[in-house]
Amino acid sequence: MRRLAFLFCATLLAGPAFALDYLSVAEATALYDAPSIKAKPLFAIAAGTPVELVVAVEGWVKVRDQKGDLAWIEKRLLTDKRTLIVRVDRAQVRGEANDKALLVFEAAQDVVLELLEPAPINAGGWVKVRHRDGQQGFVKVAQVWGL
Questions:
Q1: Are residues 97 and 114 in the same domain?
Q2: Exposure winner among 9, 19, 73, 88, fewest CB in 10 A?
């Protein structure tokens, strides 16, 4: 029994147990309380919304949204295209990755932005994004959710 417990713990520690994996919703749909279209619909989610993958089973994925709500979505309705959602009242998107750079635009809370480039390790907490209207620039990681 001790050996079995050791192997279980070793397996958990060996893999990326705490790695976060984000996807985006491909088209507007309902999210459910169980992995079935016969389950209870909990709420609707808009196309482009980023979600955190929690677990995947036979064509369904349990996801967490930016508010922390957990629900199930059909796997076919998710895409690898990365998006972020603004989590503050007004996110400032700048022309360069620094606070003194020209302000390109501001995005209101819950606006979805396309992630253009993942943050390099030494980027100082900025990522490059694009608004659906085509404007692009750099936003502070702390102002968005989905990374």
A1: yes
A2: 19
